[in-house]
Amino acid sequence: MNEKERLAREHIDVTRRHVLELGTAGAVALSTSRLWAQEPGRDSDRPLREAIAQLEYLTREEDFLSFGRGTPPPHTLGPEKLREVGLARQTWQLEVLPDPESDAKVEQPLSKAMGTALTWDGLMKLAEKHAVRILSVISCTNGKQPCGMGLWEGVPLRDVIWLARPTGNVRRVFYYGYHNDDPQQRFQSSLPIGRVLEDPPGEHPVLLCYKLNDQWLTAKRGGPVRMLVPGAYGNASVKWLQRIVLTNHYQANDTYALWNNDTDSAIKTCARFIHTPKTMKADEPAPITGLAQVGMSGLSRVQYWFCPRGEIPARDDPYFARADWREATILPPPQQWGAALPEGKLPPVPRQIDSATGQPHAWPLRHTIVHWAALLKVERAGEYDLRCRTIDANGAAQPMPRPFPKSGHNAIQAVKIVVTTP
Fold first, then answer.
1. What 8-state DSSP symbol labels residue 362?
2. Contact 387, 324 (CB under 8 A)
3. Which portions of the chain are predicted below pLDDT 70?
4. Are residues 209 and 311 in the same domain?
5. Least buried of 84, 102, 187, 193, by fewest C-beta within 10 Å?
6. Which pTM value belongs to this model?
7. CATH number at residue 374
8. How would you classify the pairing of strands 188-192 and 105-106?
9. Of the residues 235, 259, 283, the one at which a domain ends
10. Terminal Cα-to-Cα distance of the chain (whole angstroms)
């Protein structure tokens, strides 16, 4: 048995135990789910094992989807140029300044001109006492798939803000990174000062991140330091961070706001496919796997629906609410988190993980992903559409409760499958 197959069988066994621990409801789900139609170890469940073996929870650095601005893009600069423009750890500096166009009161600005800007060494000194690790997904507002799932490490933004000693007339924080000091290339985002200084119950702090998956941030990922705003889309997590501005203006002045995007929309709960067969044979089960992005409203179920190709929704049922949706199995926390972590183990201690048991405090975790799987079986040959959706913790079926574009992509995904005769 190879390593991937061993891990896949282990994942199936853990999932069985996880479902059974749900009590009577879990036992019923286990007995009726097609995922458990075969006993583990038999050749008949090999396709399922192989599909699950391909799943890796944390995204490797080189596999993250990248979006960014700049001509040339900052991460393509050579090592010497990166040092020159402050995108190397040895030369990085961060300014925290009052907005000259408002009356924000800041007693001790962090300024390059004044020689008080925060340096890498200063950030690492803060990290000795205040470092935070969290698991968080990164998604583009208009992207169809998450950019990646990471273990992020950084210092709460508020700890740096307080170094500048703001005393009044501060309502928002806006920030941007290096883009050749060209206002036409600048990409910036903003947050209410309240979100920076105080975390709502169950939320994590806004972070100045310097590590991804226990490795220093590369320039391609926005290093040496980028913003991470848990629960927000990626446009808020600005890369190549170099300047933070405290302002008394009350409006968002994000680049995305000027592009007709909803900059305040929280990450949405939605399902996406990872593996589906392009073709399958009638009456022979085929595995499907996917991920669910867990947004502000949490996640309770993942479902799939298989129907003849081209079926259109009724006028009064645009999101197929009355369709014959079937239950998929949400997989439990992985034993191996992946992303080239030593032995696949998490370093101590992400905030969502119990330090005593090494297990998440809850599952699924909001603002992260979970994997799901199902076995698909079709009786008749033909062309079909396969769809997936989530039901959030409030009972709302994707794409509800926020089906609008420009505030996070969560349209129901559909893929074509051709079923042939045995």
1. S
2. no
3. 1-45, 68, 180-181
4. no
5. 84
6. 0.89
7. 2.60.40.650
8. unpaired
9. 259
10. 29
